[in-house]
Every structure is written in C-alpha cells, then in structure tokens.
Amino acid sequence: MTHALAIDTTSDYLSLGVLRAGRIAANHYALCGTAIARTILPRIEELLAGAELEPAHLDVLIVNRGPGSFTGTRIGMSVALTLGRVLGKPVVGVDALSVLAAQADPAYTDPFYTILNCVRDEAYTARFHRRRGRIEPLSGIRLTTLAEAAAQAGRAPCLVRRFDPLPPAPADTDGLAPVPLRYGQPDALCMMEVGLPLYLDNAHGPFRTPTPLYLKSEAFRTWRPAGGAAS
C-alpha cells in the first residue's frame, strides 16, 4: 500500500498531507502567510512522526505546482524536489485548478468551471468534469479577469476560490451557480485525489520532474529548480 506526502504552498495557506498504506493519516491546512518558509519542514517532520513514518518510507511526493503565489510556489516545489532527490523518490506535480476541482462532490459529473482569483481583478479559470471517478480537465488553465471568467461560465456551475487580497469587485462572481462540494477547502485530501492516480498509473516510472506553473511571469516559467529542467 502506498505511503505519500502532499505539499501545497501556492497560497498563504500551508497544506500538507500524509498517506499511510493508502489511507490519510494526517491532514494539515493552516493560514501561515510569510511564515510558510520556516514552518514547512518542522510541520512535515511532525506529520510523518505522527503517522509513524520515516521519510525513507515514502513512495511518492505530490506537490501543487501552481498557478499561485510566485514565492510560495517555489518554496513548496523546492522542498518536494529536494526531498525527492535525497530520498530517491518520484515527485508528481498537480496544478492548482485541478486541486480546486477535486473539492466537488463525486456524485456530480456535469461539466463545471473553477475560478481562482489572482490579484486586482485577475483570475485563473479552467473547465472540468468527473469521469470514472476522476477529475479530468476539459480545457487548459486561462488567465483572465473575474468578470470575463464569470461571463464565460454563464449559467454553468462554478467552483470559486478567493484568496487574499480580495479583488475590488467580488460581486462579479456572486451570481454564479455553485458546484456541490465534498470538501470545504482545497487541502491535501484534494491533492491526494488528483495526484495519487497519476503515480499509481505509472508507479514504475519514469517520472518527469515537475516544474512551476505560473502563467503571469516568464521569469517563473523559466525558473530552474535544482536538478530539474526549465518549464
């Protein structure tokens, strides 16, 4: 059975999860802000100890590669890739919009949109559905405005996530139809749901080194993690 560690630092929330023998043994989701960099490693140690796992016991690391905070995303990516390299374990990257979509109730199979605010009135959006129990994208991730994302969705159900700072006109998304949810927040349970099948489908590898996904910055798209290739 699979032992896994999930890491998400793409926002001001530190999200971590530990899977022990295929079951969630720990799930941490807390607002940390700029404290993420000094909090993440001690928290990982605590969660693994609580699950009675040594780092070497892990089979795979799952990391949210964005889009999200420039600095925050790099912190999580660096930790995951360093641990993977030191332990000789694969690292599977998932994107923030898929993690957001995994909040949806498994019984809901109609297409829906996800909208994640960026700064000012900007937002990331993508379209998903659930097929054979898995979240699958129906479009790529697009950077647009909240108003345009809401207009594109129209009457289709939407899963909206707003991180600080809130845009100046949050009413742009108030009239959107909601998606029925299983999880109230895009935490490690959602990361495991998206990332674990990617590992299990190809458990013997090879695995491509994940790279950050940040649609706003050419500097981020070409950032090179230690030992990895540019995206």
Please provide a written account of the structure.
The chain has 231 residues and is an alpha/beta fold. It has two domains: 4-96 and 185-221, 2-Layer Sandwich (Nucleotidyltransferase, domain 5); 105-173, Nucleotidyltransferase, domain 5 (2-Layer Sandwich). It contains six helices and ten strands, in the order βββαβαβαββββαβαα. α1 packs across α2. The longest helix is centred in the middle third of the chain and has 18 residues, at 70-87. It is globular and about 50 Å long. It starts with a strand and ends in a 10-residue tail after the last helix. Mean pLDDT is 88; it is low at 218-231.
User: What is the count of distinct domains?
Assistant: 2
What is the straight-line distance between the termini? 32 Å
Count of helices? 6
- Mean pLDDT level: 88
User: What structural class do helix, strand and pairing data support?
Assistant: alpha/beta
Overall shape:
globular
User: Order of strands side by side in the largest beta sheet?
Assistant: 3-2-1-4-5
What's the total count of β strands?
10
Radius of gyration: 17 Å
Query: What are the secondary-structure elements, in order, as H or E?
Result: EEEHEHEHEEEEHEHH
Level-1 CATH class name of the largest domain: Alpha Beta
Query: What's the architecture of the largest domain, going by CATH?
Result: 2-Layer Sandwich
So, the CATH homologous superfamily of the largest domain?
Answer: ATPase, nucleotide binding domain
Strand content: 25-35%
For this structure, the CATH topology of the largest domain is Nucleotidyltransferase, domain 5
Helical proportion?
25-40%
Q: Describe the main β-sheet briefly.
A: 5 strands, mixed
**Unreliable segments of 5+ consecutive residues:** 218-231
